[in-house]
Structure formats: C-alpha cells, structure tokens
Amino acid sequence: MKLLLAEDELSLSKALVHILEKNHYTVDAVYNGQDALDYLETGSYDALILDLMLPYVDGITLLKKIRANGNYIPVLILSAKSEVDDKVLGLDSGANDYLTKPFATKELLARIRTITRSMQSPDSKLSFGNITLDRATYELSSGMDSFRLANKEYQMMELLMTNPKQLVSTELFFEKIWGYDSDAELNVVWVYISYLRKKLNALHANIQIKATRNAGYSLEEML
Ligand code: CA
After folding, report:
1. Ligand 1 centre distance from Cα of residue 52 (Å)
2. Contact present, 179 and 28 (Cβ < 8 Å)
3. If the chain, 223 residues long, is cut into consecutive pieces of 10 residues, what is the mean pLDDT of each piece?
4. What is the per-residue pLDDT for 123?
5. How remote is the CA of residue 63 from the centroid of ligand 1, in Å?
6. Cα–Cα distance measured from residue 24 to residue 27, given in angstroms and rounded to the nearest whole number
7. Buried b (16+ CB within 10 A) or exposed e, 119-131
8. In angstroms, what is the span from residue 195 Cα to ligand 1's centroid?
C-alpha cells in the first residue's frame, strides 16, 4: 500500500517514513503543499497523511482543492492544532480522520488502517489456490509450510492476490512499491518476482506467477 506524506518538519517526516516503511507501507514524502498537489496528480496513492501548516499551499486549502476536483483519496490530518474547531474544520474540509501531535505510533497505524480499510477486502487473509497471504502477519502459507515476507515481497504478493488472474503491469508494481523517487531500475520487479516464485515452489503451491512478455505478471492456477 502506497502513502503520500505531506509534512514540512524534516525530522518528523523522516521518523514517520521509517515507521511506515517498517510497517510494510511504501511512502513518498513531500515537504510543502504544492509538491503534495503535484504528486497526487501523478501518483497512485492509497492514502494521504497531511500536516496542516505547510509552505506554499496549506493543508486545508489543499484538501478543499482535491475534493473539489473529485479526488476522494483517504486523508488523515496530522496536526499540532488541537482545538475542537480545528478538527471540525479539517473534517468538514474533507478529511477522513484527524490526529493531533504528539501521537502514539500505534494509534497512527490504527488510524491509517481504518481510513484505508474500505479499499481492502474485510478479511485480513487473501487466498488463491492452496496459498494464503495473511495481511496481519505478512505470512505466505500453504497447508504445509509458511514464509514471513519482507516488505517489498509482501506488497508484490498482495497486489497479485487482490487481483488474481489479472495482468498487473511491471510499471504498476514499480510505481506502487518502489515509487517515483526510487533509484531502483524497472528490472528490480523481475528480481522480486523470482524471489516469490521460489517461495511458491517451496510451498508446493498450485498457483504460479505467469509472465506476459513486455506487459507484466498475473497469478494463475496451475493446470
Ligand atoms: Ca507544519
């Protein structure tokens, strides 16, 4: 799952990126409102974490603008403004939730899960063939054995298992999991696909990741 973080306080931004990546999110960080608007136009984000006092375009203006443009991305406001009126203004401007600084990491993660929940299946486990991916423990398992997947492997498998039998393009994997700011090259997608294939083999999976030349990958049942 890919998040956009708009926070101009550099140390807080860094700490948040670290926490979120450790919890299996991909994060792009921007430090002002204008960059946030630009990134939202080009990136496919699953949620926006938004500070209110931002340079160039403040959080409330940004929020009203994207909602007026019909962008309904889930938004969590993170702000030092703790008055009831500030929260009401934020929520009325289109935010899905509002968390005041300072906050506990656990609560931040719970609120991100809540605002993004409608985009996921209600079940925390995804299944296809004899393979299950547990979204809470990041475990990929068959009846016989299991692996705990690392961040990028987990995100790739999640993307495949939420769209079984559908072609997921190499570009989409790259954009969602590595992000625009990444120094990685596109062929890193193939490298991770090969890691996942090895794990599926070891699990005696009856499903496989099929490659379609110059297009992408899909999860298919083995015949
Ligand atoms: Ca700020």
Report:
1. 6
2. yes
3. 96 96 93 97 89 96 94 94 94 96 94 81 81 91 92 94 93 86 85 97 96 94 87
4. 65
5. 15
6. 10
7. eeeeeeebebbeb
8. 40
Quick one: pLDDT at residue 38? 95
Which residue(s) pair with 146 in the sheet? 141
CA of 24 to the centre of ligand 1 (A): 25
Burial class (CB in 10 A: 0-12, 13-18, 19+), 195: middle
Strand-pairing partners, residue 164, are none
Residues with Cβ within 8 Å of residue 177, at least 6 apart in sequence: 2, 26, 152, 155, 156, 159
C-alpha 201 – ligand 1 centre gap (Å): 48
Q: What torsion do the CA atoms of 105, 48, 15, 148 make, to the nearest 10 degrees?
A: 70
Question: 54 CA distance to ligand 1 centroid (A)?
Answer: 5
Tokens standing for residue 163: 């769209």
Task: Provide the token pair at 200.
Answer: 């599926």
Confidence at residue 130, expressed as pLDDT on a 0 to 100 scale: 95
- Distance, CA 184 to ligand 1 centroid (Å)? 30
Cα 86 to ligand 1 centroid, rounded to whole Å: 14
CA-nearest of 189, 211, 204 to 140 is 204
CB 138 within 8 A of CB 154: yes
Among 34, 28, 33, which Cα is nearest to 13's? Answer: 28
